[in-house]
Design a protein that fits this description.
6 helices; Rossmann fold; alpha/beta; globular; 253 residues; homotetramer; eight-stranded mixed sheet
C-alpha cells in the first residue's frame, strides 16, 4: 500500500447523487451527524478506504477483534437526489495525505456523477452553552443562497477550516462540484450530540429528508463510553510512545 | 493531486519576460510589493498553482465563499521585457515541497522564455525604525553590478535565505536563468508597507517602470485588518489543533 | 533505495506456512520471543529486508564491524505447518514506512502460501510484577476461539496497538490471511524475558511445538548488559544530535 | 527536482578508485579533512549533487552571490588507486533523503569501478583535550586488519553512527564494496582541525599518500570565521522561523 486504496465493493447506479462527508473532528459533530444519518436512512456500504496516510494503529473491537483503520462510503436512494455518505475512523495524518485521500474520493464521486457536496463538522467556541447551537455555512455562493431561500438559518463567517471538511469542498470546486460546509457551534472538548443535531437539522431541511433525531443522544453517549475506555489506555500508551523513542535510540544490535 | 499542479488558463506569448516573485514571508514585504505591482500594472492572471505540499486548510472569503489555497501567475506587457508575477496565499510546508513547486514554476518559465528573475521579500531586524528601510540585494554578480551602475543603492550581505525567494534564484541559476533577491529591512512582526515600498522602488527603477505607490499603505492596512480578524479566530483554532491531536490519540472505533 | 527492498536469498517451498512476527517494541517481548524461537528451532534465514524508512543509523557489531539496519525472514519445517519468523533490528520510522514494509512482507507471504499470522509483543502496565505475566490475545475471532478450545488462557481486551504487530494482522486480514496478536504483560521500561516466555508458551502450545525456554533467561541478561553499554554511549550521542542540529543551522559555506 | 540529481560534469576514467567521504558533522572533522585532502591533491571536480532532501536554504557567498546547497564529487590520479572525494555543504534532512543520496552516489561509484570506501568524521567526547586525538575505526574486517598490519593505531569501538558516514559504508557493503569509517575524537562543539589532522594522518598512511598538513589549522580558522558570521545572523533567523510559523497560522486571504 504505497498510496490510498479505495476498494469498491459494489458500484451503485445513482440519480444525481449528493455527497455528505462527516469525519472525526471538533466535538465529533460531523461524524455523529453523518453516522446517525446513515443509520436512519439504512444506507448501504459500497466502498472501503485504506491509506498509508492513516495512523499506523489498528482498531480493536469487542471480543478482541482487530481491523485496520478505514474510511467508508455508503449510499441510499432518496427521491430526486440519491445520497452518498463518507464516514470513517480517522482523517489522514499529513497535509499530503489529506490531498491524496480527498482527491481519491473525488475521483470516485466523478464516476458516480456527484453534483453537490455537503460536509459536516463542529466549530469550537471553547464554551459550554445551553442554547440551541448555531450552524455556520461556508462554500458555494449559489448553494448558500438556496439555503437562505429555504429559510434555513445559516451564519456566514470567515475562519480557517482545517482538514477534510474544507479540503473536499475546495478541491471539489476546482473540478466543478459545488458544495457547502455546515459547522455546528460546539465546546470542542466534548462529544456533542446537540451540535450534531443542529447541523443535521439544517442538512435534512435542505435535502428534504425525514430523519428521526431521538437516537442521536444515545449515540453520543456510546461514543463517550468508547472514548472513556480508550482514555484509560492512554497513560500506558503515552508511556509506550516515549519508551519506543528511547528504545530506538538505545537499540544497536 | 499527488504532486503540484500548475494549471495554465491561457498561455501568453511574451517578449524576453522577467519573472518577479513575491510570496508571503517576513513582514509580508514580498507579497505586498508583488501584489501592489500587479494591481498597478493591471496584470492578467494566466495560471493557478495547487499543491499537496500546501497546508490542508482552505481560504474563506467574504460572504463565506471558500476556496483552496493557491499560488497564481500573472503577466503584463511592458516594453522590451514583459513581466510575469508570481504571488500566492502560502509557501509549501516542507523542503521537498519547496523544491517541487519552484521546479514546476521554472519549467513553465523555461517554456515562456524567461531571461531573469527578481524575488522580493523582507529582512528581519527585530527593531521598529522610522528611517527609510534599506534594501539588500543578493544573487547574480552581473545583475548586481547592473544595479550599481544604475545608482540603485543595494547593500550586499551574506545571510541565510529560507524558502521560495532564495530557492527560485538558486535553482533558476542551475538552469542558466540569472536572478537577484531584493530584501527590505523590516521589523518582522508587523505587516510592513514601507519596506514593501522600498523594495518596489528598487525594482521599478531597475526595470524602468512607473508605478504609483500611494495605494500601498492602504493595502497594508487591509492586510492588517485581515490578520486581526484571523487572529481572533486563532485561540479557537489552537484549541482545535490541540484537541485534534488528543482525538487522534483517543479515537479507536 | 527509494523503497523497501526484500532480498530473497533462497526461496523455500513450504507446507501451509504460519508467519510469526516479533520486532523490537515494548520490553523487547516480541523480539526476544521470536529470536529465541528461531534459535531453538534452528530456523534458516531466507530473506533480508532493507528500507529507506528505517532510521539512517548503522549497526556496529563486535570488533567494529558495521552493517545496515535490517529485518530478516527465517523458516523452519515443522509438521503440518511450516513456520516463517520475521525479526529485525528496528521498526520503520513513519506510518507510511510501516504500511510499506508490512505490505512488502505480505506480498512475499502470499507467494509462499501463508495461511495464518501470529504477532508477538508486550503490553505495558508500568508496574513491576513478580507473578506470571498475563497474555492478551486480539485478532481473528475463529483463531481466538481455537485458543479457547485448546485451553490456552488468553485475555481479550480492547486497546490500541501501534506498529507492525497490529498492522501486519490488520492488512493481512484485508488480504484474507487471519491472525492473532499475543501481547505479554510487561513493565515497559525493562527488557522482559519473563513476558517473552509467557507469550512464547502460548504460541508453542497453539502450534504444538516443543521449545526449551532455559536459554531465554540467559539471553535476557546478555541483552541487559548490551543496553547498559549502549546507555553509556547515549550521553555523547544526545550531545551529538543537539550539535548536529545547531550545525545544520549555522552552516552556510 | 522530485529526487536527487547527480550531474556528471565530466566522467573520468579511473584506476581501481577509492572513495573518500567527508560531509559536515561532529566538529566538522570529516569535512575539514576531506576538503584539505582535495586541495592538497589538486583534485578536479567532476560532479555536483542537488537534492530536494537538502534544506530549502541557499548559500550566500562573498559579494552577495547566491547558490543552491550542494554536494560535490572530485577525483585525483594517485598511483595504483585513483581517489574520489565526496564533500558538501550539508547532509540530507530526513532518513529517506539519506538513503536516496547515498544510493545515488553508490550508483555513480559502481559505474566508476570503486573498490573501497573510507568515510571520515568526528567522534564526540564532550571534553577538550590537549593530547593527540585518538582515531576510531569501524567497518569491514579485512580492511581493519590491513590497518593493523600497517601499524596504524585504530581503536575499535561499538557506538551508533548517524548519517552518511555510516550509511555509505553499510549500503556499499550490501553492494559488495567494503569500507572503513575513521572517526577522530573531538569535543563536538568546536571546529576541530586537530581531530581532522589525526583522521587524515591515518588515511594518508593507509593510502600511501603524501599530504602537507600545515594549512589545516588555517582552514579550521576560516571555517570558524564563517560560522561566527552566520551565528550573528542566527538570532534574526530564528525569529524569522518563529514568525513564519505564526504567519502560516494567521494567514487566510
Amino acid at each position: 500500500m504505497k498510496k490510498t486504496v479505495i476498494k469498491i465493493l459494489q458500484r451503485p447506479r445513482l440519480r444525481k447523487p449528493i455527497l455528505i462527508g462527516g469525519l472525526p473532528g471538533m466535538g465529533y459533530v460531523g461524524k455523529l451527524a453523518a453516522e446517525h444519518l446513515l443509520e436512519q436512512l439504512h444506507a448501504k456500504k459500497f466502498a472501503e478506504i485504506h491509506s498509508p496516510h492513516f495512523p499506523h494503529h489498528v482498531v480493536i473491537e469487542d471480543g478482541g477483534v482487530l481491523r485496520a483503520l478505514r474510511n467508508e462510503l455508503f449510499y441510499v436512494r432518496a427521491g430526486d437526489n440519491d445520497i452518498i455518505i463518507w464516514v470513517g475512523d480517522v482523517q489522514p495524518i499529513s497535509p499530503e495525505g489529506h490531498y491524496e485521500v480527498v482527491e481519491g474520493v473525488l475521483d470516485v464521486m466523478k464516476t458516480l456523477g456527484v453534483k453537490q457536496v455537503f460536509t459536516l463538522g463542529g466549530y469550537a467556541t471553547g464554551k459550554y452553552s445551553k442554547v440551541q447551537p448555531k450552524v455556520i455555512g461556508m462554500g458555494d455562493t449559489r448553494l448558500l443562497e438556496k439555503l437562505d431561500a429555504r429559510g434555513v438559518v445559516v451564519e456566514r463567517k470567515g475562519g480557517p477550516i482545517i482538514g477534510a471538511a474544507g479540503l473536499l469542498l475546495a478541491l471539489g470546486q476546482l473540478r466543478g462540484i459545488p458544495g457547502v460546509c455546515l459547522l455546528g457551534e460546539t465546546h470542542g472538548m466534548v462529544v456533542d450530540h446537540r451540535a450534531a443535531q443542529a447541523v443535521l437539522r439544517v442538512l435534512v431541511d435542505v435535502l428534504g429528508l425525514k430523519v428521526d433525531m431521538s437516537n442521536l443522544e444515545q449515540r453520543a453517549k456510546a461514543t463517550e463510553q468508547t472514548i472513556d475506555r480508550v482514555r484509560r489506555e492512554m497513560e500506558l500508551r503515552e508511556r509506550k510512545a516515549r519508551r519506543r523513542e528511547e528504545e530506538e535510540v538505545w537499540y544497536i544490535g
